[in-house]
Amino acid sequence: MRLTASLFIFLWVTVWNIDGSCLKPKATRSYVHSLFENSDVILAGIISGISYRVDSLYIEPCAHRLLASDVRIFALTNQQGTFLLDAPMIRVSLPVFDTFYTISRKQAHRKRRRTKQAICEASLCPFGSKCGLKTGVCECKAKCRVVTDVVCGSDHVSYSSFCHLSVRSCVLAKKGVRLRVASKGPCKKRNPCEDLRCGPGEDCVVNQINGILLAQCICPTQCPNYGDSVESSPVCSSHGVDYQSSCHLRHHACESKTNITVKFYGRCDPCHGHKCPNGQTCQLGVDRRPECRCSEQCSMNSAHVCGTDGKTYMNECFLKLAACKEQKDIIVWKRGNCNEVGSPCEKMECGFWGSCVVKPDRTAECECPSKCEDVMRPVCATNGETFDNECEMKKKSCETKSMIKVKHQGTCGIGVCATFNSCKKPQVCVAVDGKPKCVCPSCTDELKEVCGSDGITYANECKLRNAACMTQKDIFVKYNSVCEGCKDKKCDFYSTCVVGDNHKPECKCPDDCPLYEMSQGKEVCGTDAVTYSSECHLRKSACHQKKFIVMAFEGKCDECLHVQCRYGEECRGGVCICSYNCPANPPLSARICGENGVLYPSLCHLQLASCQKGAPISEMPPSHCHSAQTSFPDACECNRVGSFGHTCDEAGQCKCRPGVSGLKCDHCLPSFWGIHLIAQGALSCRPCGCSAFGSARSDCEQTTGKCECRNGALGDKCNLCPNGFMMAAEGCVPTTDYKTPRDCHSLRCFHGAKCVPSPASFPDCVCPQTCNMDRLGVVANMTVCGSDGTTYSNLCELKMFACKHQMDVVPVSMGICDDESFEVLDRLQREQNTEEKRLGSPCSRHEECEKLSAQCITRPGRKSVCDCGEGWRSHQGICVEIFKKRKYDQLELATDLKSDWFVLRKDVTRFSKLSLHIHLKEKREGTLLRMVTEDKKDLEIVHENRRIVIKVGKARVESLQTIAYNVSLELKWRRNELHFKLNGEIQKHTFDGVLDSSAKKIFLGSDGKWPRSRLNAIIGFLEIDDVPVRIADVKPFYMTPEISRIVKFKENGYLKFENLNMDVREKTFVEIAFKPYRTNGLLFYWSVPSDPHTDFIAFAMIDAKPHFVYELGSGLSYIRGEPIPLNSWHTVRIERFAKDVSMYVNGTLAKKYTSQSKNAHLDILKNDVLFVGFVPNGVISHKVRKLNVPFEGELQELRINELPINLISVSSYKKREASDNYILAANN
User: Fold this and answer.
1) Looking at the structure, do residues 1101 and 1179 belong to the same domain, yes or no?
2) Using CA atoms, how far apart are residues 797 and 1131, in angstroms rounded to an integer?
């Protein structure tokens, strides 16, 4: 603990150790004399502040008795420049001062004469009051005249000054309440709900009583209805019960005092009631949406295959069907029966619901179910435990190696099946319409034939038991194989081979069908337009008639002839149903408001509601749906989303949440949006965050937060501009047309500032002296995160800062900014090239679509869009030419700079003709093709300065015409003559040497060297001597960088370079080649450590993404790329021109960005230091302190403004033997 003592000077005193307890020492003469003997300094002072050391957890037990402004006498000892307090502090009094004075003067002690006690000496006035000299009564201060810094009281309330706190302390002292200064500065915002623990389903509601925020737990009394939004959609509870919404679940949990939580958003079993066509099964897809799958109809031909699960299937179709139904990755291991082809699973016995899996190394092992569907179909197991579904039960049984089976469907001890014991094995009890019903188990399509006691061959033992269960006959396994005589007997039309009493095989029709009547709901309609009482009866009839008949649909064939359905319904099996399959979580932009006041997630959901209602529901504006609520009786009628509870004042004003307004707290304040997000967990309405420069107004659309842009601004927040434009005060203006305002007529001021002309210089924007945002309520005093990634104390502070610097800084969220402020910057400071043209994008002229090889085409009744012209087709987002004369397949090889390719064919060692077509994705120079020859006169086709260059050895020839994005090239040569046709134009050139050497290797889209010279392109086709190169003829390759001067960083190792003295003020080029081992690490940091306000640049890996961070003096900026793979070499190049920054990763343009800062210069001049790999001793700027993670990996090259940094110029390396690599670690 450290104490600050004040007696004309300020001292930092450290309490190191104090022996004894908290008893007050008696200031006797002998005790004071001992202090003089053992102490170096004795002083009296006022305690102005108390703080605790971070590196020590020891707190002196008497510290709680010390308060700010207390006066004490300190006895200190000096140890190496630090004052230590080794004795308890002594309270100040006149006798104590007399004792100290006489001992210091070495005089005899004399008692002080008694004097007449003054009227104010009889009592001690409380803090914040003073004694009246005439009355002797303690009087509190009436007002404070001096304005000082804000302080936080022990009651968690911020006071304007120390004086105001003392006045409040004096008033509370009369009521027996003690108030002191807790800390300097305003109190941190504190939610009173943090100290309150609510019961199941209860909500914490904050109310203000006598100026103090108090919290209480109450049951939800009102559930807002937002249509089919997430908050108002059905949920599945942890008990397996469906509720209308999460609010209704909490209401039930609160009323029943039961701990019920949300298990899934959506119904417990989305497949329940979801009808699928015959042969298909319902499975959960993305976002738990029910989907009908496994619809493949398999033939009964016998072509046995052995799967990787060790099971034999009748044919490959049945194997795929089993993989779909079981949701496993099963493929064909070998063709034939598993026991005949020697499957490793034949000798494996996997019990406890485990399954055998054949590995690629031809070994087998037992695996437990790894993943189960997110569905609630509770089953009660034989061990008395309830599982979410049968798959979870099997998984638990397999993992614990204990046999667990289904006892009955439903929760143990709950439901009709819990007390129903009439099902015979292997039947299982299932609740149907609230009544118990015995059902037979389902089986897989595994082919492991067994011969039953009834002479019938069954596919597996499970199907034998299922047949016994269905027919209620006692059938047992006679032996494991096909019944004798049936092996070569083929039966058609649903008949099965049966060995009769005469031991002769014969085909028998399925005559043992259950006795269903036509009114029991098992009817099916066959493809012969005949209604059968069940599917078994259909097969029986087809067998006796020897006709191929399958089920068309469930129900009677004539059920829908005279059925008239309501609006939107379809007739299926004589029943009208709404067969809409709507997405579970459509995008927010798809939401539609209905005339019934319900906000539907999509048009499909509105049509489904119309179908269920039987009448159309018209579409309305989104604002129409905000007032629709399903509520319980409430006198105040406060909006339960936007208010703190259900109470209101005498005028009917409800207590609104931050950012919410209205008498009933039913809408957001101006410049705020998203009241519906509070129901999803948000604490307040969100600031619109509209760009002050690019938006037409400060408010936004209330459901999406989208702003209204002006002057060509783009983006949801109007903070982006098209290519060739820049964001200025008047919106997006062409970069070439921007001019500095020279008078108030052309200067536009923001944030409440007014333009003031100046005859001697440019006009200036003058901000108001005060800021008043009381109209916003409680949100005006909340901390706010700005679009520059900085946290401001309140909205006024942000507005005054933005006004002073006339910057486009607006609030983006309430509360402090995220620790990783890059996410805040990335949300509002996006790159200017995000609005690049794509196929289908609107256009006005052909030049806009040139990069796509497309044209601006206008079709009747439609707008002009970028589309492929005649003779062209789209491929990977661009247009490629259709070559009708070519009968071979196109190559269409993409060189995306993540891999290199070379031709593998051996018949191209010597050739004289070459044709190719390449589409360039960007105007970047690089190698189209390089042929490595034995005589080292390599043939290379290069794109340079928008021309095609043919290089043969050291000789070269350039094309006469320039190219855009499409290159059609044909080369022919004979000895030393070269003819080439480029986009229809022919050129001829003669070389000195002879071009007839054999080719060793042909590289495509790369030169095969390090560092690489590659292109981002699509190779449409390639011909060598009129023979096409196909996709199977090319293979990828990877060439590591040259193993020279490679530095390996580990264990906090770093390099330090001082006084580089480079001019990077206007432009900065940085190129670095590295191989990262970890996803996070600082590669370099360059600044002037002696100046805390200096500019700097830094390059780091954050979550495997390259980040370039820089400070130009008026705010942090950064640019980042996409994730790059670890343990592989990468080259990153950064190009900065003033405020414009570009990042190239492995030769590809990754991002472009224009800084919004006021300054455009990077000032790193004198006393600069460059750290590589790590920054020691905390000299890194606090703005990027979290980037200082030691880099672990290898570094080969670092260049700044084309000047290479000598990475081996220091002596702290460890050099490996027989290698040119250097290892750099800490403490070397």
Assistant:
1) yes
2) 43
Instruction: Identify whether the C-beta of residue 29 lies closer than 8 Å to the C-beta of residue 98.
Output: no
φ and ψ of 134, to 5 deg = -90, -40
Number of domains in the chain: 6
The residue segments making up the domain with residue 715 are: 635-720
Of 477, 146, 383, give the one whose Cα is nearest residue 394.
383
Query: How many other C-beta atoms lie within 10 A of the C-beta of residue 1037?
Result: 14
Which residues are 755's β-sheet partners? Answer: 765
Report how far apart, in Å, the C-alpha atoms of 414 and of each of 110, 176, 406, 833, 882 are: 91, 57, 15, 61, 68
90-118 b/e (C-beta count within 10 Å ≥ 16 → b): beeeeeeeebbeebeeeeeeeeeeeeeee
Sign of CA dihedral 958, 962, 967, 971: negative
Shared domain for 643 and 618, answered yes or no, is no
The residue count for the chain: 1228
- Domain CATH for 702: 2.170.300.10
Q: What does the alpha-carbon distance between residue 102 and residue 179 come to, in Å, rounded to a whole number?
A: 38
| Distance in angstroms (rounded) separating the CA atoms of residues 391 and 404 | 11
DSSP 1190: B
Q: Is the peptide bond before 426 cis (omega within 30 degrees of 0)?
A: yes
Beta strands in 716-773 (DSSP E): 725-728, 731-734, 754-756, 764-766
Closest CA to 1104 of 1056, 1154, 1153, 1145: 1145
Residue 473 vs residues 454, 467, 496, 513, 709: alpha-carbon distances, Å = 10, 8, 18, 12, 77
The span from the CA of 749 to the CA of 757, in Å, is 12
Which domain-ending residue is among 663, 691, 720? 720
pTM of the model: 0.35
If one compares 345 and 896, the residue with the highest pLDDT of the two is 345
Residue 252 sits in a domain of what CATH number? 3.30.60.30
Q: Give the pLDDT confidence of 651-690 residue by residue, as tens digits.
A: 888 888 889 988 888 889 988 988 888 876 778 899 999 9
CA atoms within 13 A on the CB side of 608: 16
Would you say the C-alpha torsion 213, 219, 224, 228 has a positive or negative sign? positive
Specify the DSSP element, H or E, that contains 443: none
**Same-domain status, 1201 and 1055:** yes
pLDDT digits (tens, 9 = 90+) for 382-428: 888 889 888 999 999 999 989 888 888 888 877 778 777 778 777 77
CA distance 383 to 412: 10
Which residue carries 């333009």 as its tokens? 755
Q: How far apart are the first and last CA of the chain?
A: 37
> For the chain, percent helix, then strand, then coil, each to nearest 5?
15, 30, 55
The amino acid that residue 676 corresponds to is H
